Amino acid sequence: MSKVLIIGAGGVGSVVAHKCAQVPEVFSEIVLASRTVSKCQKIADSVLEKIGRKIEVREIDAMNVSDLVKLIQEIKPNIIINVALPGQDLAIMAACAETGVPYLDTANYEPPHRAEFRYEWQWGMNPLFKYKNNQAVLGCGFDPGVTGVFCAYAKKHLFDKIYNIDIVDCNAGNHGHAFATNFDPATNIREVTQVGRYFENGKWVETAPIINKDGSRQDFRQTFDFPGAGPKEMFLIYHEELQSLVDYLPELKRIRFWMTFGEQYLTHLRVLQNVGLTRIDPINFQGKEIIPLDFLSALLPDPASLAKNYTGKTSIGVRFEGEKDGKPKTAFIYNICDHAKCYKEVGSQAISYTTGVPAMIGAKMILTEKWKGSGVMNVENFDPDPFMEDLNKFGLPWEIAQDENVPKI
Ligand code: NDP
What we know:
Elements: E1 2-7, H1 11-21, E2 27-34, H2 37-51, E3 56-59, H3 65-75, E4 79-82, H4 89-99, E5 103-105, H5 120-123, H6 126-131, E6 135-138, H7 146-158, E7 161-171, H8 185-193, E8 196-200, E9 203-207, E10 222-226, E11 230-236, H9 241-248, E12 254-260, H10 263-274, E13 283-285, E14 288-290, H11 292-299, E15 313-324, E16 327-338, H12 339-346, H13 350-367, E17 375-378, H14 384-393, E18 398-402
Parallel strand pairs: 1-2, 1-4, 2-3, 4-5, 5-6, 6-17, 7-12
Antiparallel strand pairs: 7-15, 8-9, 8-12, 10-11, 11-12, 13-14, 15-16, 16-18
Helix pairs in contact: 1-2, 1-13, 3-4, 7-14, 13-14
The structure holds NADPH dihydro-nicotinamide-adenine-dinucleotide phosphate (NDP).
């Protein structure tokens, strides 16, 4: 019986609250805190209506460490699930380190005005967590998150050695808007407009971003036959789990991350980039300093609001090449998730759902001591089996294709 404090009341926070409420034997008390308390209350009302459980709501500025510490000391949670924005990671981790409460998140820290995605800032807090024998689990959404657990599973059960990994992420859904992002717009646009990067033969190799400055598209793109979604063009982008997985699998020769983007999304993104609306450096507007991307984010639909009319599926998986018993082997572990089904169950679209369910499962792993540890760790460092079992139980069933049944790359 444990008390969970969820921070962040967006699309993902809503899924985490609903999914924790479905598991009262682990999450016996739930508190949801965020910057805008009315959003917490809306989620609490939905949890009461759909699951019949009451959750407490609080207002918090998660950039303020001393306010966070006060809230934690008052509520006394057994774990904190951070599903606010990446910019809040370090403040929430600092409060967890001070109070000795375990921490879990779904996205690595990003400094406000630089497009940098690195784990060093959070890994740097390892001694603080170790000092109190406390635990922080980083990147426990789908990607990062389930993708890392799939790697741990492949290493444990399918391969003696893994040489090549391709993480492939397809959203073949349709939300009916001309342009919208499926999670926080600023984080999403920063991620897809940066230069691409992958790891090969001991070195990081940079590629062009998905759209070049002259408007042409990245040469790296290729078609992949996604189960449940069919053949789709995908682009090479950098993604944070590449960094931790390179450390986890020292024999790895190459690891890449690919994502699909629709025609309409790419056309809008090119125009927004060309007119400067994706810039993250401050500009002066009518005597006030504004960040163009923050302004754009304020205009775009709230990711949570996309859920109602979303149709289609996501198909995300990890493709492995390596060897088993001295013979070459290929495998593909993947999940297909249906937007409309997620809406029916918890009122959310599949991107929030595929992020929120693993966050709940990760917290459950920590509270039930299936994932024990001291310090700051990524998900692939734990036993994948109980987590994989729970994915099947809590709405994200996975499949494995092997050898000749694995889609080509
Ligand atoms: P949203 O923008 O929908 O929600 C973010 C929430 O955080 C909002 O409720 C917002 O409050 C709150 N928040 C922002 N700043 C503060 C602050 N200073 N103090 C307290 N609360 C704050 O984002 P999502 O729910 O879509 O995404 C949540 C997280 O999940 C992000 O970090 C995102 O990167 C990550 N993610 C991870 C994925 C994965 O697979 N690993 C995939 C998708 C997302 P307000 O309502 O006031 O704006």
